[in-house]
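Field reference: "sequence" (input) and "structure" (output). Example, Periplasmic chaperone PpiD:
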Amino acid sequence: MSVIQKIRDKYAVVIVVVICLAIVSFLLQDAFFGKSSMMRRSTSVGKVNGEELDISEYQQRIEEAVNRYRQQAPNGNVNEQTRQYAREQVWNDFLNEQIMNAQYDKLGIQVTEAEVVDQFNGKNPNPVVVQQFTDPKTGQFDRAQMQQALQSIGQDQTGRMRTALQQLEQYILKSRLQEKYTSLIKQAVYYPKWLAEQQTKDNAQFASLSYVSVPYASIADSTIKVGDDELQKYIDNHKALFKTQEARKVEYISFDALPSSADTAVALKSLFEAKAELDTTSAADIENFIKRNSDIAYFDGYVSKKALMVPQKDTIANLPVGTVFGPYYDNNLIVFAKMIDRKTMPDSVKVRHILIATKNQQGAGLPDSIAKNRIDSIERAVKGGADFKALVEQYSDDPGSKATGGEYDITPATPFVKEFKDFAMESPKGKIGVVKTQFGYHLIEILDQKNIGPAIKVAYLGKPVDASKETDSRAYAAANEFASQNHDQKAFEKTIQEKGLNKRIADNLRPMDFVIPGVGQARELVRWAYDAKQGDVSNVFTFEDKYVVAVLNGIRKEGTASIDEVRPQVEAEVRKAKKADQIIEKLKSPASLEAAAKAVSQPEMKADGINFGTPFIASMGFEPRVVGAAFNKAWGPAKVSAPIEGNGGVYIIRVDAYQPNTQPQDPAGTARAYEQGIKSMLDGQSGQLFEVLKKLNKVEDNRAKFF
């Protein structure tokens, strides 16, 4: 026990200190590395009034938007430009949700489920619903078609119809909320009666005047000295004119990896070797040959001579069958064209059909023999006078054409299965026949044909002229040498001048910009510009066929523009004001117009038809101060005004007479026109109303940290 007691006496303080340190370490660990720690990197891409949009949710929304674009794209591909558009759309949707939902909640604006249903089934369906279910033949809203589509949603095992309906309902909900909100705001637009009457009174007469003007251009700019303190004072007094957003200015040199003459020779050699085989390839084998050898996809169909969209199209269109033309350039490709076939055919055909589906991999459809017997029976019934449209509604397995009586408009470019399209394009008007495709058996009738004329089938053997590895390496080596020898802006500029390089400028780069003119997709360069210090020179950036070295030339922060950014504009305004002071000092207060003209050696001139509501004078230009002075009661007719500092010079005026405005003046019409003009600016999510609301809310955009 005595040993334990000694330990307690001797090490008690040490033990307490160790325990305290352990507790503090635990707390600090949580503070710096825990879920809500100070050291944890934020995952917020932005905020609106404190409401965050997390990066994971933002990316999920972007992918959903991209998938929608992908479904609409002909080949299902989405490029970087479309992705950037999706990013902006999702961000703007988030702003709209947060800002507008707060407005709706504050005002108690709601849309009930019954209202949404009424947008489908009511007397006046929503315009989007009407558009979705309009009969293309009559141009009228087909309510029965809509009801049939809504009832069949439960039978759609893919879930696509339900998803489409939900998206449509969501759109209607948002648009109705927006309509109610905008309607409330519009009701507050009011132009007072007294103001309309006063405006009518102000515009009730025209003035004729004599004047003397001293243009600012009569004083040489070189005689007016302007200091930076004067410029800054002007900016401070007019801050609203010089508001700026955060931006960067970059200067850059581009080292292009363009194909050399040797690269072109290599491409031509390869192309001519393939061309020798093209000459002897039969029409039956041409598709496989083009797939193996060409960068231009083979189109196994006919194109009307008028619709041919290639270089040298007149020469190609007139080639004899089997003849090869070329080589010629088509963008970055060198091409040979071979005429495969030509015939006379329409450029568009209207058909109607009935599909009896055969069994597919999912088991849907009829066995082949049963389907064939059924389509043969239907063909006999149609040729015997049966109602084709009624048979479509009763038997056709093509949901895409049931509502139109089985009708389709087909052109050579229409993406239909080959057997169907061949029958449609090559059969005469009125022909009825059965065609088998991968979907089953079709009974097709040719209803109409338009613009029958020459059509051609052409195969294109095209190969690109790409920069070789040697050419690309030379361009990269030149860029790398430039970057390694120029580490600051001074050296960057000196080397450009010594070597006569072509420097380019990318000004006003915003944090979320993705494209730089002359470069293309250049997000990496924009991000570098926001991480670098002014005067920094970048490493080599690689962008498709070019290598870029940049220097950060300017950093502009949000707020008020600096003198250097707006110097020419501000110098012109300050210089104009100093010229006006000189002119006014010379004029003083002239007793007459003749005295003013003599003092400044300028002629006396006249102006007619001046109206208070129009600040433009034919002989002067835009001069609202002169117009206002012409109707100043303190001066009136026959009196000489004080010097007026105008836009183009200093003016002395004398009103000679007032004439009544004989045009009818309607105060009520004036008020209506004003109110209508304001209301038209309030419509739409992207209108001026939403821009005002954005300024009234606290928006924080951090997306540039993630993209």
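The chain has 24 helices and 25 strands.
The two ends are 68 Å apart (CA to CA).
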